[in-house]
Write a structure and sequence with these properties.
18% strand, 412 residues, nine-stranded mixed sheet, three-stranded antiparallel sheet, 18 helices, alpha/beta, single chain
Length: 412
């Protein structure tokens, strides 16, 4: 084994499955999804088995994440078939295996199958405990189903549970958001994700905004919701480790951390993103086109971007600064050897003067509490500074590359 192969073998490897089926699309969701029409699920399962056979893994997988869509929409026998096909290719159990579930899809037999496969983390799409907010978001479950799902997940022996919540919903008050947080904490999950609602283009919620039927919160209002989240969850022993994510000690999501730290992952299924073996790419976002490719023995990869040191360095900065531990700049310089390692020094100075960035004597950069509120703006400034100084062939796809990372990590 040469030095390059040895270095690659030490990088954590993740697997992401995109299960695209949804009984009803949520009004805010822009991920690729399909209605579970007759025969479509069987064709999807055959396609996943075929795609798994086409991909050779060069080392053990450390984390697995099944997202969607609604993975829990599959029948128990389909979950088992999909899991067994994956395990056949892995050869060993991962450290962490997460499956996303909607409250209405949580059933005892499905949980039993997942548990027996080795799934050890459930991510439950709660979004809100308020019926009016659920209606605004187009969620199909009732609050009663949330409580029943949490109780059943715990009773079936899962000891790593995440609850997804959304804030800054039209019509939502700070008091209503705080009530959601109180109910989430009372349910005693190990992990809580809190996302600021975004109006993704062409979603039902976006169309309502365009027509004037609803409106978004202001940035000042969004900041108030965010600050209330951090304050309340910290006071209740959920430590923040990333802008949108909080956990009890030892329960941070390993899959997402590995993604944000620019490790490697392979995505399976239509629209799934990958970062592997020197390339970043996504599968075609069409069930029919994806199936056509895998049954012809080829992978339907689109948006292929070579993983240059400069690209990986940029993404490590952007996603690393979203984490509470920040980034160790000397370590990143050594790891990626960017073309101009000190190009961003003027930006770091400006951010420090604005009170948005803290820099230790050892070169560890962390966003201040106010900096976290402006993390997206800071990420854009990093990209602008880097792209303005790069030749066209090395700046190709930097921002789309970031978007593909977002689609492969559940809690972004």
């Amino acid at each position: 084994m040469n030095l390059q192969e040895k270095a690659s073998s030490q990088i954590p490897l993740g697997v992401y499955f995109h299960i695209p089926f949804c009984a009803r699309p949520c009004d805010f969701c822009a991920f690729y999804e399909e209605a579970p029409k007759k025969g479509a699920i069987e064709r999807f399962l055959q396609g996943m088995e075929r795609e798994l056979a086409l991909v050779s893994l060069d080392r053990p997988v450390s984390t697995i994440f099944w997202g969607g869509g609604t993975p829990g929409l599959l029948m128990p026998r389909d979950l088992q078939r999909l899991g067994e096909a994956l395990l056949k290719n892995l050869g060993s159990q991962p450290q962490e295996w997460t499956v996303e579930m909607a409250p209405a899809t949580v059933k005892e037999e499905k949980l039993r199958v997942l548990r027996d496969l080795g799934v050890n983390r459930i991510s439950l799409g709660v979004q809100s405990f308020d019926p009016a907010m659920l209606e605004t978001l187009g969620r199909s479950h009732a609050c009663k189903q949330v409580y029943l799902a949490i109780e059943l997940i715990k009773r079936m022996g899962f000891e790593n549970l995440n609850l997804d919540l959304i804030f800054s919903i039209p019509g939502q008050s700070i008091e209503g958001w705080l009530e959601d947080l109180k109910r989430a904490v009372a349910a005693a999950p190990q992990h809580i994700s809190t996302y600021c609602l975004t109006f993704e283009e062409d979603t039902a919620l976006w169309l309502r905004r365009q027509s004037g039927q609803t409106s978004a919160k202001t940035e000042v209002e969004e900041a108030a919701f965010y600050e209330k989240s951090a304050e309340f969850l910290s006071a209740n022993d959920y430590g923040q480790y990333e802008v949108s994510n909080y956990s009890q000690p030892g329960f941070a999501c390993r899959h997402n951390i590995n993604t944000w730290k620019m490790s490697e992952w392979i995505g399976f299924g239509p629209s799934a993103a990958s970062q592997y073996s020197g390339w970043r790419y996504a599968n075609v976002a069409s069930l029919d086109d994806w199936l056509l490719g895998v049954f012809e023995g080829r992978l339907g990869q689109v948006e292929r971007v070579p993983l240059t040191p400069d690209l990986l360095f940029a993404d490590s900065l952007i996603f690393g600064l979203r984490m509470n531990e920040g980034i160790d700049l000397p370590v990143l310089h050594k790891r990626f050897a960017p073309t101009e390692p000190h190009l961003l020094d003027p930006l770091w100075s400006d951010l420090r003067e604005e009170g948005l960035l803290q820099v230790s004597p050892q070169g560890v950069l962390k966003l201040s509490p106010r900096g976290f509120l402006l993390a997206d703006r800071i990420g854009s400034e990093i990209l602008s500074a880097l792209e303005s100084n790069q030749a066209s062939d090395s700046s190709d796809g930097l921002w789309p590359a970031c978007e593909s990372i977002r689609s492969s990590a559940s809690t972004l």
